[in-house]
From TrEMBL:
<dbReference type="GO" id="GO:0032259">
    <property type="term" value="P:methylation"/>
</dbReference>
<dbReference type="GO" id="GO:0005739">
    <property type="term" value="C:mitochondrion"/>
</dbReference>
<dbReference type="InterPro" id="IPR038375">
    <property type="entry name" value="NDUFAF7_sf"/>
</dbReference>
<keyword id="KW-0496">Mitochondrion</keyword>
<comment type="similarity">
    <text>Belongs to the NDUFAF7 family.</text>
</comment>
<dbReference type="InterPro" id="IPR003788">
    <property type="entry name" value="NDUFAF7"/>
</dbReference>
<keyword id="KW-0809">Transit peptide</keyword>
<keyword id="KW-0489">Methyltransferase</keyword>
<dbReference type="GO" id="GO:0035243">
    <property type="term" value="F:protein-arginine omega-N symmetric methyltransferase activity"/>
</dbReference>
<dbReference type="GO" id="GO:0032981">
    <property type="term" value="P:mitochondrial respiratory chain complex I assembly"/>
</dbReference>
<feature type="compositionally biased region" description="Low complexity">
    <location>
        <begin position="35"/>
        <end position="44"/>
    </location>
</feature>
<protein>
    <recommendedName>
        <fullName>Protein arginine methyltransferase NDUFAF7</fullName>
        <ecNumber>2.1.1.320</ecNumber>
    </recommendedName>
</protein>
<dbReference type="InterPro" id="IPR029063">
    <property type="entry name" value="SAM-dependent_MTases_sf"/>
</dbReference>
<dbReference type="Pfam" id="PF02636">
    <property type="entry name" value="Methyltransf_28"/>
</dbReference>
<keyword id="KW-0808">Transferase</keyword>
<feature type="region of interest" description="Disordered">
    <location>
        <begin position="7"/>
        <end position="64"/>
    </location>
</feature>
<comment type="function">
    <text>Arginine methyltransferase involved in the assembly or stability of mitochondrial NADH:ubiquinone oxidoreductase complex (complex I). Acts by mediating symmetric dimethylation of 'Arg-118' of NDUFS2 after it assembles into the complex I, stabilizing the early intermediate complex.</text>
</comment>
């Protein structure tokens, strides 16, 4: 029935010859809300490393051009005119970045640039605006269809049952965006009172603007804890569940079993980029020329992130690394994963990570998107989203290295994950009971969540064709070993 509904159309769309839809081919579906305070390790001392030569000082700093080794289809995007990487008048963030470089007396890492661009308290991309949806810069899976949040809710309830249905559980979401995923999860689970009554929701979000949006989306109200006391708690009226906000994961109270959801969160964590040169592996840095233009340069000596490059190379093996000229490492992701694994090992529970990425070493994937279009990474910092592919293999190694009491499952494709949880049955039920004007929206949303490539049933404008992300996004789970294998892994 479902297959007939999806494929029913007067004509079948065919891709042009040679057309490829690699991961991240559609900026409309590229995203992840961010909500973590990143830490810089620029003061670390670097021992001799076999992966990066100790280089002679190079005051001129070799300028390099960005090169993409992960294919990204930009055929449907506009080609912006040549630019100088410099706004007509410097924004506060641009002045701040130049000030850091000038104060340091040299370039900053790509990771530090990325951190400032996304989460600078005054001018960071996520901090003071709503960047989601058609009117923003990108669209996330929860914004595509309510079914995504509902299926994540099914996963959370299944894990809760495997945990023995504890009476108190921390339900944590990292980078909740507008709060859409959590709202759909609570609506879908609202009939299961034993589950919802056990929950205390913790939203890890550093953006004040997004915190306010989440408060509205979850339909939160403030309630007095006791009639004769001034203490209040915030409760979501969707399921009468208490809600708290935190700037970082470390602020979430421990001691209770936790169900942690990280959807399109890891891809916004700052990455360090390394490039193979004749003198060895060198870190890619951001510098400012005399005419105030930003540029990429290569480090003249080993950097603090070299330690993480060495660790990543050890995990991968020299044969895999020997084939690459670029490598991205994300120390923040490694440390966050270790923190999550430690919490799950001690308190019980599990974490679900869904993002676009690879189950192996990531090469050169960092990209910028503004208003649903790819733009130059150095163009007008703070006005575009920056993100990179998630290294799922690195997440696995980090979790397993942190604790022997956790097990890692996956990654599997988003299509496999949602399909095993029952999204096919859910969409059939919705399609059979929906109004005519809702039919296309449901069908398109389903395809975007589980399909691959362009939707075959689409008859509208080519630029609006739904692009499936069912195989471009991967799902991975980290759970306490005592709970067994989580559904649907």
């Amino acid at each position: 029935m479902l297959r007939r509904i999806l494929l029913h159309a007067s004509t079948t769309r065919r891709l042009p010859t040679g057309h490829v839809n690699p991961p991240s081919s559609s900026p409309l579906l590229h995203t992840r809300p961010l909500s973590s305070s990143f830490s810089s390790s620029s003061s670390s001392q670097i021992p001799h490393s076999p992966f990066v030569e100790h280089l002679e000082d190079n005051p001129d700093q070799t300028t390099i051009k960005p090169s993409t080794t992960i294919s990204i289809d930009r055929s449907g995007l506009c080609n912006p005119p040549e630019h100088s990487h410099e706004p007509c008048s410097d924004s506060e963030l641009v002045k701040h970045l130049k000030g850091i470089i000038k104060f340091r007396g040299g370039p900053i890492s790509v990771a530090e640039y990325m951190e400032e661009v996304l989460t600078n308290p005054k001018a960071g991309f996520y901090m003071n605006r709503d960047v989601f949806g058609l009117g923003g810069d990108f669209i996330t899976s929860p914004e595509v269809s309510q079914m995504f949040g509902e299926m994540v809710g099914v996963w959370a309830m299944s894990l809760w049952e495997q945990m023995g249905q504890p009476g108190r559980v921390n339900l944590v979401e990292l980078g909740p965006g507008r709060g859409t995923l959590m709202a759909d999860l609570l609506r879908g689970a609202s009939k299961f009172k034993n589950f919802t009554e056990s929950l205390h929701i913790h939203m890890v979000e550093c953006s004040p603007t997004l915190q306010k949006l989440q408060h509205q989306t979850l339909k939160c109200v403030d309630e007095e804890v006791m009639a004769d006391m001034a203490d209040k708690r915030t409760v979501s009226t969707l399921a009468k569940t208490p809600v708290s906000w935190h700037a970082t994961m470390d602020q979430v109270p421990s001691g209770l079993p936790s169900i942690i959801i990280a959807h399109e969160f890891y891809d916004a964590l700052p990455v360090h980029q390394f490039q193979r040169a004749s003198r060895g592996w060198c870190e890619k840095m951001v510098d400012v020329l005399e005419d105030s233009k930003f540029r990429f340069v290569l480090s003249s000596q080993p950097t603090p992130a070299t330690l993480y490059l060495a660790k990543r190379c050890k995990w991968a093996g020299m044969e895999e690394i020997a084939k690459l000229d670029h490598v991205e490492v994300c120390p923040t992701a490694m440390e966050l994963t270790q923190s999550i694994a430690d919490r799950i090992a001690s308190d019980g529970g599990g974490a679900l990570i869904i993002d676009y990425g690879l189950n192996g070493v990531v090469s050169d994937s960092l990209q910028a998107i503004r208003k649903h279009k790819f733009v130059d990474i150095l163009d007008d910092p703070g006005s575009a989203d920056l993100s990179a592919y998630v290294d799922f293999a690195s997440i696995r190694h980090s979790a397993e290295e942190a604790s022997g009491d956790v097990s890692v499952h996956g990654p599997i494709t988003q299509s496999q994950f949602l399909g095993s949880l029952g999204i096919n049955f859910r969409v059939e039920a919705l399609l059979q009971n929906c109004a005519e004007e809702q039919f296309e929206s449901l069908r398109s949303g389903y395809w975007q969540l589980v399909g691959e490539g362009e939707a075959p049933f689409w008859e509208g404008p080519d630029e609006q064709v739904p692009i499936g992300m069912g195989t471009r996004y991967l799902a991975m789970a980290i759970v306490n070993k005592k709970q067994g294998v989580p559904v649907p892994f």
